[in-house]
Amino acid sequence: MSRIARLSIATANQIAAGEVVERPASVVKELIENALDAEARRITIECQDAGKRLVRVTDDGAGMDRHDAVLSLERHTTSKLREIHDLDSLKTLGFRGEALPSIAAVARVEILSRPRQEMEATGIEVEPGSEPNVRQCSGPPGTSVSVRDLFFNVPARAKFLRSAAQEMSHIVDATMRLALSHPHVSFGLLHQGKMVLSTSGSGKTQNALAEVWGADRVQGMLPIEWESPEGVVIRGFAGSADAATGHRRYQFYFVNGRAIRSAPLRYGVDQAYQGILPSGRFAPMLLLVQLSGSMVDINVHPAKWEARFWNDRAMQDMVTEAVRGALGEPYRRPPSRGEWSASSSWRGESHPEGAHMAQRVQEPLFSPYSTPWEEQTRWEWLGQAHQRYILGYDGQRIWMIDQHAAAERICYLKLSEAQRSVAQMLLEPETVELGQAQHQMTDDCLQILRQMGFEVESFGPRTLLVRAIPAPLSGVPVRQLVTDAMERLGQHKGMWGLQEARLALAACHGSLRSGQRLSQVEMHALIRELLATDPPFVCPHGRPVMIEIGEDELDKKFGR
Amino acid sequence: MSQSMTPMMRQYVEMKNEHPDCILFFRLGDFYEMFFDDAKKAADVLDIVLTSREMSGGERAPMCGVPHHAAENYLARLVDHGYRVAICEQVEDPRKTKGLVRREVVRVVTPGTLSQLQTKDERSHSFVVAVSENQGSYGLAAVDVGTGTFTVTQFDGQEACKLFSDEVMRLRPAECLPNAKLSQDPAWHRLVDETGALPAEDDAGYFVPERAEEALLRHFGVVSLKGYGLEGKEQATTAAGALLQYLQKTQRIFLAHLSGITYYHTGAYMLLDEAARRNLEITRRQMDGKREGSLLWVVDHTVTAMGARCLKDWLERPLCRLEEINERLGALEELVGDALLRLKVKEHMSPILDLERLASRIAYGSANGRDLLGLAASLRRVGCLKNALAESQSSKLVSLHETLSTPEQLCNAIEAAIEPQPPVSITEGGLIRTGYDDTVDQLRLLAEHGKQWIADLERSERERTGIKSLKVGFNKVFGYYIEVTRSNLGAVPEDYIRKQTLANAERYVTPRLKEEEEKILNAQERLWELEHQLFLELRQSVLEHLGEIRRQAALVAQLDCLLSFAILAVENDYCRPELEKSKIIAIEDGRHPVIEKVLGPGQYVPNDVQLDEKDKRMLIITGPNMAGKSTYCRQVALLALLAQCGSYVPARSCRLGLVDRIFTRVGAHDNLSAGQSTFMVEMTEVSSILNAATDRSLVILDELGRGTSTFDGLSIAWAVAEYLHTKVGTRTLLATHYREMNELASQFHAICNMVVAVQEEGEDIRFLYRIVPGQADASYGIHVARLAGVPPVVLERARSILEKLESEPRNHNHASVAPRSSRRQLALSPQLEHPALRELKGIVIDELTPLEALNRLQRLQRLVREEES
């Protein structure tokens, strides 16, 4: 008895849709890629209800005539390739012939398209399972595809969608990626009628970066320009340490113009930032890799997120080298005249589009160290310079330590260690007069102060009575301490208040300021404490604590 | 009025007699009170309770009042109803005076001057205007007391009256002060009615020319007005001086924020008359006067209030000089092409407050600590803007970079004196920074020491009494106290006075403790007074910087407008227009900026426009209504306007020869109240166009001749078209339902026919919204009626009447209309050669026999007859 039957086209489409259309963001990605392939210069994406109710992508590209428009909804039809070997020489983004029919299988789709030279446009309305309704109508040149009520006929799918905010953030992500990899195309993303993202399509990547990630994040970024003998080209922009965040949301990777998620690329970047950033912190990164089609396989997954390289390890190392090259290695690069370890400035020849960029000279960053810290006894302390820096020599390299940053770090850690810091009673309770702002203190603020180890209570309209302060901060004038803490708390509410207050106090009162002379004993003590923290590279604000200069560098300085 | 009045009532009557035409707000304690008739009027308008107050002799006077701190709203309402309000304040401290407190009227609030207190819309100006006329010369001066804007202009020559009226309409003043001649002119009163302004009266000879000039010289502290461009402009000077005097009388302060006066000449800009501004919906929608749906609404992406006002001004007065326009466009190109620059400028500009309004608050003495700090912070931002422009290339941005600057001294002075995040009030201390003034510091220390002494009391009392757990504390109700737990009550010394009992403790005070507390409170009071004093001094010192502040404000406003244009261009896919001295208009894929925004992306169908001097000066556009004719015409005008404002335009490409004036004659608009029918209004507008248009103008005529019978209308329209084409030579877009006008194209070679593309499908028609060369072959009126839902029986009848009318031979000559055929894509009608002519041409006479010739003749005659039926 026969049990196997052919699936109807509609069902087959739905199944395939499952792979291509995960969520509204997938729809957005597919439609944008189609628009790009149509050589659009302006793409507008409108979303209602985070794409659940409507996703509409409008472009000013080539448009489709009636015949093409109707065929586009059929599976395995495409304008992008004819035979499988075309894959190798593929220059377009969409090619599987699955996007539109897959989408049309799980939503209500409308297409309005007109090639420029035609007088009339073609309008198609189609629902899953029924014949498309085709008619002639008026319309501007280009194409507009509206996808309504996504997953209305597969409720199970619809239930899996996350909250509006999350879905929207996926859509924004997908749009950002495509906007960054196509800087000559102008993008506009609207949600509920409001402009969420807008790029000018001026052609310069750094413009698109600034428009997408904001001026602040982009201002410190350094250009990446690297090429291998095998013809692998790596370009992009590497962010500075102070723009680092705890997530990878601002790290975008592209291979041959296609947005990709790839472990080798990620690890390559992480490797490059080792020693500059603690683990778990990621600097903004735009990485654009170009390589021959034979060295990478992109047809791995229908949603085309992943790629397979000819050799993962080799790719990873190439990335590391490229990014390191941008960040600047003290001992790999000859120092430019008069500056220690400064890498190429923003306006360098290595970067072709330097014309409008702001001047930026990179601050020296240091490389991963290899000397084990336990061997500190081999260290020779040379002295203190500018009453700010402690100099040491470990037999191989000269080290310079910012005493204030070091003290900050130590203090911060101490403050964070205890759940509730140990309090030190004052000999006499002290009154602290508060300014107008802090005078609006709430009980929450006082609570946080108490958590930190202060004992405080209200003592008059604008006055506090302080009986005890946190032990690590003893020796600091009480008034100043409390006022500073209150100020910081005023700026940051809630949970962060505690964190920020600690930061502030550590920063300003970590007992050592620049401009303080230290005896040798004091220096030793400081360093010992510093080395006990782990790793001793950055102060709580992300600034470096230590810098090293190797023998080679010294030699080069002296022209050897 | 009763003989024996209380001294206070007498004072009231005195004040009231000085201001008979105003409602008097009489300050009594925390209220502003009104009496007698004023009270009755106010109670009615403000919807507050009307009570009464006893006067001597048992009589009661009607009375009502509003609280002082909420007075602004009530003031606004009264002013809205057309009342003037005189505000009479107590000028002495009631706590310090014995007997009657002295009172004075400190301000007269009028519709035009309300903006100092309250604004409905900070993005627009609210003007008081003074106008003066003498021997055909008109002077017009305008002041916005809220922002300190003071402008003046003069109109002379032939068109003076019309231009003057247009400009008054543009300003939309809230209050008008005319000179004697104008106040007797009924035309002026009609104009005022239209603007809705409140007329003011010159009761003190403000317009006497010498007095007016004197007032100006004195106010600005100069010996000649030449520096302001007022030399030789008598009417302008008179109007300006009159306005200044009027304001001085009502505002009663030194109007420090009127730091300069700007003379402008309307001829330096593209001229748009009131009809054009209205029809093109530049700053407000025609339907309901709202901002939403106007060009300004689409274009406005400014981030400061000053920028918003400046942008409105730029849109109402597009430029006319190539260099100036290209300067703006150059700056725009740089802002569009460099995202980092654009974002940085926006970042620094957004937090800048309304400097102009702040300046006026300072002049009026109503600025507090926050205002001053806000001023300093905003001025510092100006320096950041300057730095952001450091690497600009375009001339306009370079010039802004050079002229923007932070008045360092002023900012330093303010920041040194005022405590960060000061309170709203200026009389309750917490205002002045420590270290600014010794006495303030001392008084503060005194209060502080007092508190520290009290805190120290804890240790000393513990020692004295031996109670280890003794505490000192503070409570809002009882003040400072010493707290002792129940178990220690025995050890409490005698000089402790019990104040408060708690569950587990008792709280006490001692005389010494109370003494210290008293000292603290005294010090506090003196401290507050001193801080108030110092603040007033500081605020006063800012007055001399107002001129500089306003200058910087104007520069920031300009940069904001450029930024706004840049954001507009980026977000909406606009292109840079190329302006030239020729008379070309070549637009590719042009879009109507407002309609495309309202429709949403991917809906608006773009169209090309081609006009030039030699072959295409006039376009005659035919086709059914609602198919895009009017939109097309308006689109061309709006793009020309935007381009000459120095903005990018919604098109793929745009070349524009400078336009000196835009005229529009659109729609049916009657003015029955002024005694004008639709047609009359139309003819009035047309006549002004015919008289004023030049060969550099752009004229939009939509449905000319609609308001009268067909033949009259067609004749007039035809004649107007001919005149504009030949005598004036202006660029014209003429949309019409008279298909006969297509004939003009074959008579004049610079006139071309355009038509709206329509697709027929049986009974239905589909608008394609494309305007292409050609003629309409039918009116489609019945089709449109069908779309509108007119009942089928009416449509049927209409159709049969139409057939009859079309088949009747017409007396006058008009272009042969090509027969309709169903299913034709374009409404093109190629001029086919008549078959009879063709045949005639083909005859070889020599070869014809007489019989053949007769036969041929018969054939030809038949052909001609057939074609005609």
Topology readout:
The complex is a heterodimer of chains A (560) and B (869).
Chain A: H1 9-20, H2 24-37, E1 42-48, E2 54-59, H3 66-72, H4 99-105, E3 108-114, E4 121-126, E5 133-137, E6 142-148, H5 155-160, H6 164-181, E7 186-191, E8 194-198, H7 205-213, H8 215-219, E9 222-227, E10 233-238, E11 251-255, E12 258-259, H9 263-272, E13 285-290, E14 296-297, E15 308-309, H10 312-327, E16 380-385, E17 389-393, E18 398-402, H11 403-417, E19 423-433, H12 443-452, E20 455-458, E21 463-470, H13 478-491, H14 495-509, H15 520-532, E22 546-549, H16 551-557
Parallel strand pairs in A: 1-7, 11-13
Antiparallel strand pairs in A: 1-2, 2-6, 3-4, 3-6, 4-5, 7-8, 9-10, 10-13, 11-12, 14-15, 16-17, 17-18, 18-22, 19-21, 20-21
Chain B: H1 7-18, E1 23-28, E2 31-35, H2 36-46, E3 51-54, E4 60-67, H3 71-80, E5 85-90, E6 103-109, E7 128-134, E8 137-144, E9 149-155, H4 160-171, E10 175-178, H5 180-183, H6 186-195, E11 198-199, H7 209-220, H8 234-251, E12 262-263, E13 271-272, H9 274-279, H10 295-299, H11 305-316, H12 322-337, H13 339-349, H14 355-364, H15 369-388, H16 395-403, H17 408-417, H18 438-465, E14 471-475, E15 479-485, E16 497-501, E17 505-509, H19 511-542, H20 546-572, E18 578-580, E19 585-590, H21 593-599, E20 607-611, E21 618-622, H22 629-644, E22 653-657, E23 661-665, H23 678-692, E24 698-702, H24 710-728, E25 731-735, H25 743-747, E26 751-761, E27 764-773, H26 781-788, H27 792-807, H28 835-842, H29 850-868
Parallel strand pairs in B: 1-5, 7-10, 9-12, 10-11, 13-23, 18-22, 21-25, 21-26, 23-24, 24-25
Antiparallel strand pairs in B: 1-2, 2-4, 3-4, 5-6, 7-8, 8-9, 14-15, 15-17, 16-17, 19-20, 19-22, 26-27
